[in-house]
Amino acid sequence: MAKSLVIVESPAKAKTINKYLGNDYVVEASIGHIMDLPKNDIGVELKKRTFEPTLIVSPGKEKVVDRLKKLAAKADMVYLAPDPDREGEAIAAHLFMQLAPMVKDKSKIKRVTFNEITQKAVKAAFLKARDVNEDLVDAQQTRRVLDRLVGYQVSPLLWDKVRRGLSAGRVQTVALRLIVERESEINAFNPVEYWNITSKLQAGKQDFVAKFTGIDGETSRVSNGVDKEGKEQFLSGALANEKITEEVIAQMRKAQWSVASVERKERKRNPTAPYTTSKLQQDASSRLGFNVRRTMGVAQRLYEGVEIGKDGTVGLITYMRTDSTRVSADSITEARDYVQKKHGAKYLPASANDYKGKKDAQDAHEAIRPTRVDYTPDSIKAHLSEEQYRLYKMIWQKFVSSQMVPAVFDQTTVEIAAKSDRTYNFRVSGSILKFDGYLAVWDNASEDTILPEMKDGQSLDMLSVDSEQKFTEPPPRYNEASLVKVLEEQGIGRPSTYASIINTIQDRDYVKKIQGKFVPTEIGTVVTGLLVKNFPYIFDAQYTAKLEGELDAVEDGEEKWTDLLNGFYDHFEKELLYAGTHMEDIKRMEQVTDQTCDKCGSALILKWGKFGSFYACSAFSKAKPMTVAMGPWKKDPKALLKKINDTLNFPVEVKAMTEEMPDFSKEVADNKALQSAINDAQAKVAEGTSKKVIVEAVSCDFTKENFAAKPDLSAPGADDVPEEEFCDNCGRVMVLRNGPWGPFMACPGYNDDPPCKTIRKLTQKVQTKPPVQLEESCPKCGKPLLQRDGQYGEFIACSGYPKCKYVKQDLLDVKCPKDGGDLAARKTKRGDVFYGCTNYPKCDYASNLKLINETCPKCDSAYLLEVVNDKGTSYVCPNNHAALPKRRPKKGAPVEEPTHAPCTYERKVAGPAPTVPLAVPDPEKTRAVVETYA
C-alpha cells in the first residue's frame, strides 16, 4: 500500500512529525536547501535584465535529492512541509521542481505549514494543504538575487583595492556601518566634566540618600554640547566644576534641612507582549548571557521537539522567527485558565490582553509562546538541558504573564529643602510593591527604595554631604542585543536574518568582540569607508530598510519582483561604474608619516599588507641583489661594473656568501671602492671559504605594526572562548574536526547518508599579536630572537629576518639514523607532529614516532621509538615491527624488506592518558569563515 511522503527540513523535526502522523506517512528531511545559485558564477541573467536565477542542485545534496525522487515516485501524496517562512517556501518550491517530473498527477504535491509542532497543529495543517505560494517564493528569490548581485560584483573591487578574499554584503555592510560609525563617535567624543551631590539624611531612626536637583526651585544644569539637530543639551541636577561644588557644599553643611513636600500616588506597571524574535534575542542576551547564535540554536531545538518522558518527542514552542505579537485564541484561553487555577481571579483581567505589533510587522506567524501552558518549566526540567530549561522558562513566563493584570506600586516622591544663604533642592523617590500582578509569574528584577514615613515641613537630620566628579561618557559600543534592537528599529533585515547578519560580520573578521561589545577591526573600518564613499545609495540604512518594505510588497503580491530588481539595479550599476574608477587603492598605499625609523632614522611610510596597515622604512630598496660570478668578472670587470651601476644606486654592499650567511661584507659609495671590494670578495671564493659574491643596494628593512589602527586583542574579554555552535540546517551541536587544511567545525551528520555538510572553517587570523623580544641571541648572526605568533602557534625566530632565516627548533637528543644530522619536531598542515631531519631536503628522513635516546638491550639499536595508544605509552625497538603501528606503503612503491634482524623488545613506561574533552581552537589564533552547503 502506497504511503504519503512528507518532506521537512531537519531530521529532528522529521522524528517529531512522524510520531504524530502514524504509519501511513513517510517523513523525510531535505536537510535545509537542496538548490542554490552556482558558486563559480554570478548565476543571474543581466544582459536582458530578466534577473532570472540559474539554480542547481546544491553540492553534496545529490544523494538527498535522488532518495526523495525515488520515494516521491512511489508515494500516494507528497506534502512539502519546510518552515513557515519565505525561506521555507523557497525550499518547498525547489522540492517541487525536482519531484514534479517523478509524479504523474502534479496536484498530488501539496504545501503544508504549521506554526507549532504539536499533534493538533500538524493534523490541522494537512487538512489545509495548499499549493506553493509563488509570491513568497518570489520574495525570497529576490532577496537572494539582490545579495548575489552585490556580493559578486562589489567583492572583486575589494580584492583589487584592498585584499583578496574580502567580501561585501548588502545588509551586513549596513550593520557593519552602524558599528564603525559608533566607533567614530566614540573616538571623536569630548568628555564634559560635571559634579553630582548627594546627602545622607535621617528621618526618625531611618537613613536615606537624596540627590541634589537645583537652587531656589530652579534646576541646576551643565551644558553638554549639541545633539545631531544642533539643539543645545544639558545635564540636569549637576554642577560645572569643583570650585562651585565646594562653595555649595559649604553652605549645605550649615543649612536647615526639612521636607518641602511629599507626593504619594499609585503606579501601575503593565505586562509586556509575548516574544518576537528580536525581543527574545535581546532578553536572552541581557538575562541569560546567550549570544544570538546560541539563542536561535536552542530555540530551534525547542521548536522541533524534545523527548518528554512518556509523551515522547514534543515541540515545546511555536516558530521562533517572527515579528508578530499576535497569539491564537486557543492559547489565550489556555493561559487564562492556568492563571485562574494557579493564582486566582484577582490576577486575571476581565478580558484578554491584546498587544499591537509594530506598524510594518509581517505578522505571518504568532508570537513565540509555549505550545502547551501545562508544560510548566519545572514540570519538564528533568528532560531539558540547562540552556533549554532557561530559555523555555523565559518564553513560558513571558507568555503567561502577558495575560495577567498589572503590578501595582505605591510610589512616594519627597522634595527636600536645605536652607542657608539660598535654598538648595534635593529629591528622593521610593516605591513599595502593593500588588504583584503579573510579577507573580514574570521575574521582577527591579530593586525598590523604601522610604521612612515623612510629612510636609518635617525637620531632617543631615548626616553627611558628598560630591562626586564625573565625566560624560561616549555612546556605548553595540553588543548583540543592542545591535539587534537598532536593526529592528531601523527596519534593516528581518527576524530570520538578524542571527546571520551578526554571524557574518564576525566571521569575515570585520568586527571583534571585546567584553561582549563589537569593536570594528582595521579591515572592517577600511572596507566600510570605501563602500560607503563609493556606494552611498546602496549601503544607506534608509534605502536598505526601504528595500525590506518592497520585499514585503512582493510577498503580498503588490509588486512584481523584476520591477524591484530593475529599480535597484539602476542605482547599483551607476555606483558600480563610479567605484570601478574612483575607489581608493589601499593595497598600493604609501603614505609618508612624521615617524622615524628605529634603525636608520629615515622617515617611515604607512603601507598596506596582508594583515592590515604597517610602517616601513622609506630607505628600503626593492632592487634585487646581483650575483657576480668569478669567470665573467675576470673576463670583463668594466662591463659588470656598468651593469651594476645601471641596476643599483650607491651606496651598495658587497658580500661573499656561504649559504645564507656572509663571510665578507663591505659598504661602498663609488666605482673604485666597488671594484676593490669585489676583488676582495672573489678572493674569498677562490680560497674556498665562500661560495658566491653578491652586490646589493644598502636597504633598511625595518617595519613595525600599526597597532593604533587595530583593536587590542590582549584586552580582558577580547574574543572570549566561543560557546557551543549549532548546525544551521539540523540544529545539532557542531564538533571540531581536522582536515587537510587544518581544524574546522562540522555538523556531526557530516558523514551520514545523506550527509549534513554544514561546516565552519577555522583559518589563520587576520590580525596578529606583536612579536616579543627575548634575551636570547641568534646563534647565526647575533641579533635578538623574537617570539612570534604563526599559523601553527608560537615560534622563536631571528629578528634579522629575512636576511637571517634562523628559526629555533625543538631538537631531539637523538641523531638522524640516515645521515647523522639533528632531528627536530615539526607539524603538518593538519597540525600533526612528526620528527624530521634538519638537513631536509638533502635528507628526507621523517618519523611519526618520537625517537628516544636509549640503546635497545636486545639488539643494540641506537634508539627506541615512543608508541602512544589507548593502552598507554611504551618504548619499542625500531626492529620490533609487530609492536609498531602498521604503515601503508605509498601507491606503486616496492615493499621494503627489513635491513635488521627482528627484535621483540618493548617496555611500558606509562598508563593510558586521562580523557580530555575536545577543545575549541584559540580564537585569537583563528578566524571563522562560514561556508554552508545546504
What does this molecule look like?
The chain is 28% helix and 26% strand. The protein is built from 19 helices and 42 strands. A hairpin with a 3-residue loop joins strand 15 and strand 16 (423-435). It is globular. 34% of the residues are buried. Residues 763-768 and 918-934 have low confidence and may be disordered.
Give the helix/strand layout:
Layout: E1 4-8, H1 11-21, E2 25-29, E3 35-36, E4 56-57, H2 62-74, E5 78-80, H3 86-99, E6 109-111, H4 119-127, H5 134-161, H6 172-188, E7 193-203, E8 206-215, E9 218-219, E10 221-226, E11 232-236, H7 242-252, E12 256-269, H8 277-288, H9 292-304, E13 306-307, E14 313-314, H10 329-343, H11 386-401, E15 407-419, E16 423-435, E17 461-471, H12 480-490, H13 498-507, E18 511-514, E19 517-520, H14 522-534, H15 541-555, H16 561-582, E20 590-596, E21 603-609, E22 612-617, E23 626-627, H17 630-635, H18 637-647, E24 652-658, E25 661-668, H19 671-687, E26 692-697, E27 703-705, E28 735-739, E29 742-746, E30 758-764, E31 772-777, E32 784-790, E33 793-798, E34 811-815, E35 822-827, E36 833-837, E37 846-847, E38 850-852, E39 864-869, E40 872-876, E41 906-910, E42 926-932
Parallel strand pairs: 1-2, 1-5, 5-6
Antiparallel strand pairs: 3-4, 7-8, 7-17, 8-9, 8-16, 10-11, 12-15, 13-14, 15-16, 18-19, 20-21, 21-22, 22-27, 23-26, 24-25, 24-26, 28-29, 29-30, 30-42, 31-32, 32-33, 34-35, 35-36, 36-37, 38-39, 39-40, 40-41
